[in-house]
Amino acid sequence: MRFEVNEQMFFVNFVPEEGRWYCFAPTATGVQRIPVSMDTTPFESYTVSVDEQMKDVVN
Q1: Would you give the DSSP letter of residue 52?
Q2: DSSP codes of every residue in 1-46
Q3: Alpha carbon distance 32, 59 (integer Å)
């Protein structure tokens, strides 16, 4: 995934050899590698009840 913050380009990629995600930022001398921290299990599932009458449409 590529994205831009304050006119600085970043991209996120999974490094399978290390088993973790990194955010990469190009610099004048190469690429800066920033580890992505994860506070919880990445694929935790849970149920959310939805009140059909309280739905709002956002455009």
Answers
A1: G
A2: -EEEETTEEEEEEEETTTTEEEEEEEETTEEEEEEPP-SS-TT---
A3: 37
Distance CA 50, CA 34 (A): 37
pLDDT at 23: 92
pTM, to two decimals:
0.54
Residues in the chain: 59
Question: Residue 21 is encoded by which pair of tokens?
Answer: 């995600």
pLDDT digits (tens, 9 = 90+) for 7-57: 888 999 998 898 889 999 988 999 999 888 766 665 666 676 777 766 666
